[in-house]
Every structure is written in structure tokens, then in C-alpha cells.
Amino acid sequence: MDTAVSRGGVLRALNKDDGPHRKLRLNLGVCVTEQFNPKFEGHVAGPSFHHPLNGKEYVKECIEWAIRKDRVLGEKTRAKILMHRVFDVDEEMAAEETLYFSDQMVYQHYRKDHWRNNGHRQAGIVAADLEFIRENDLIQPKVNESGNEYYEVNYSLELEVDGHNMKASIRYPPGQQVQGVEQICIAAAFKPGTK
User: Fold this and answer.
1) Distance, CA of 150 to CA of 129 (rounded, Å)
2) Which terminus of the chain has a lower count of CB atoms within 10 Å, N or C?
């Protein structure tokens, strides 16, 4: 009888397919600047600003919760966030995105310092040099009403949960070539014994 129990334990350790489901115990997100939308309570609740170059109204430091807590994840779960950044013509083109996690209830479109996002913690930073876009003439400057030139760059931030790790990639053009990557261990986001 002892060997049957031991063999069962060994077989279970080798085959975790029937083990605990990959249910995420944390929310995963990124800090973003969102274009102001009066339909979003979080935008109305927080301060907004008009960008001096393109004149659009934005809300800084909102957290986009891309992969949510209590979700059962497949082998590789991905989320894609379209990002937008405005650069002065003399400004270095670079992207630096801060990643967050939270084990509490979270809300979209609220600033990171709003009470509805209490309990979040920084998970890491992913950065990319985008200067090649200008150097290779892949983008043309725009001109605002005051006659000042600026650049608007669109790229994507992609999160991929694979095993006990989350990989964050900045891609330009959006969804295409990886320009910067960061890998973060999120083993604590799963129940012990999860594959």
C-alpha cells in the first residue's frame, strides 16, 4: 500500500495537468496617460491637462489593468495595450512603462493615486529606445496651431503570462517588432502547486 501511495505522489508531481487551475490571484497592469473621456468616472474624478504640443486633453498616471484577478489562464495568456506618446522635435524618443500588480479590487481609468487603486505595487519597468523611428524617417513631424513641430508615436505594450513569468514587450510598429522587453516572476500570483 505504501508504494502505491508513493507512486501516486510521484505521478502527480510529474503530471500537473490535472492539478490546480491557473487562476490568477493578482491584477496586472501598466501606468498610462489616457486621452480624457468625460464618460469615464475616473477621468472626471482626477485632474486633467491639455498637452502643449497637440492641444489634446489627457489624464496622467492611470492604470490600465490588462490581465484581471480570478481569471483562469491558458498556457500563454496575452494582453495588448495600444500606447501613444507625444515628443517635442528636440526630445529623445524613448518609452518607459511602469508595470503594476494588485491583489485588491481595481478600477479602469482611475489614476494610480486614487483610492480606488489602493494596494497596487510596482512590478517592474520596461523601456525601449525609439530614436530609430526618427533616424530612419519612419515618421514625419506634425505642426500645431502655434507653428511648433512635434511627433506622435503609436506603439504597443504586450503582456504575456507564460508559466510563472510575465513578459512585457514594447513593440513598434504596434504588434510587430520588439524594441524593449522585461521579464518578471509572478509565481506568487498563483496558488502553490500550479503548473
Assistant:
1) 17
2) N
